[in-house]
Amino acid sequence: MPLPADTALGALMATLPRPGVVRWIGLRPARDQAMRECEAVEAVAGKGLLGDRYASASGKRGITLIQAEHLPAIAALAGLDAVPPATLRRNLVVAGLPLVALKGRRFRIGEAEFEGTAPCDPCSRMEAALGPGGYNAMRGHGGLCARILKGGRIAVGDAVVPLPDEAP
Questions:
Q1: Which of 63, 64, 90, 66 lies closest to 152 in space, CA to CA?
Q2: Which of 53, 61, 94, 123 could form an SS bridge with 145, CB 3.0 to 4.6 Å?
Q3: Residues 58, 161, 3: CA angle, nearest 5 degrees
């Protein structure tokens, strides 16, 4: 849970330099199937993204996001020239905003609203996808899981905007 904005550290944690932007969208149609790249998707409140295997009951993992700035770091740590977004099996690649700052916060992308719930830790599949050491290459760079609070359309190019904290 974020610190109250009236504390010095809380104010720093609530201050972001600019909104982020969606650079890539992908859906996981079923277990062990390749990701399907999309230009736009529909987020369903309390569920997930239409067409994604996790769309039936999201809990805290209705959508997964990863920072575009972390893709080169993951590639370097895995000894690769580059890592295509689909390899990492996250729904959205977001640039320009530190996703860790959205944990425990509400944010908007396109028409939809979300709450950052937990780090999106890598799974053992990353060892096969990235090669030996791939799991560890992703540790600390796996992104964020979020709950969908309000459904709506999300598209490549949409802004990722933190929302103000609600008063108690």
A1: 63
A2: 61
A3: 80
pLDDT at 82 over 50: yes
Assess if residue 167 is contained within a domain: no
Report yes or no on 1 lying in a domain.
Answer: no
How many domains, in total, are found in the chain? Answer: 1
Beta bridge partners of 135: none
Q: Which residue's structure tokens are 């103000």? A: 164
Q: Which residue in 62, 84, 88, 80 sits closest to 141, CA to CA?
A: 88
Give a yes or no: residue 79 inside a domain.
yes
The pTM of the full predicted model, rounded to 2 decimals, is 0.88
Domain containing 92: what range? 23-158
Q: Residue 151, Cβ neighbours under 10 Å: how many?
A: 19
Question: What's the pLDDT at 168?
Answer: 45
How far is residue 53's CA from residue 71's CA, in Å, rounded to a whole number?
A: 23
- ∠ CA 54-21-74 to the nearest 5 degrees? 70
